[in-house]
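Renewal narrative, Specific Aim 1. Our central claim is that a sequence can be written position by position from structural information alone. The example that follows is taken directly from our test logs and has not been curated for this report. It begins with the structure tokens describing the chain, in the order in which they were read.
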């Protein structure tokens, strides 16, 4: 858990940026991938890691995440359209990495954990921090 090569200090909790995308991480009604993203974030938090969730702006509450876990919500085009998951996710993948860099979010992150393949290359373009990718569905 202690990676001093990535700039992490061994006496501090590892700082993880957990990247969602659909806007449902921690909400009452979420899809299967979003549910897993929330569970992973909550379990990491319970083990003492400093986790920040980055997700698409959503007016719904996020009661399934710990109350003291920071959630950064980014407005993405397409959110206003009902049942527009694929467009929301595509916009999130396109915007999140640049937003995180521009707003200094990566300065306080030791590792980025993404769940959509597009985010791997997008975050790689803006940071040298380790990127962990969890694939939830087969890629062909």
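The sequence written for that structure reads:
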């Amino acid at each position: 858990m202690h990676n001093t090569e990535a700039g992490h200090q061994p006496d501090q909790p590892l700082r993880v940026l957990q990247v969602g995308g659909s806007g449902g991480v921690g909400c009452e009604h979420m899809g299967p991938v979003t549910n897993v993203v929330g569970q992973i974030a909550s379990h990491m938090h319970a083990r003492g890691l400093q986790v920040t969730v980055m997700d698409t702006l959503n007016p719904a509450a996020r009661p399934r995440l710990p109350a003291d876990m920071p959630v950064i919500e980014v407005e993405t085009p397409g959110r206003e359209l009902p049942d527009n998951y694929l467009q929301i996710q595509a916009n999130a993948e396109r915007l999140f990495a640049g937003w995180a860099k521009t707003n200094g979010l990566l300065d306080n992150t030791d590792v980025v954990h993404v769940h959509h393949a597009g985010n791997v290359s997008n975050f790689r373009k803006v940071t040298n921090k380790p990127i962990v990718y969890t694939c939830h569905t087969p890629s062909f």
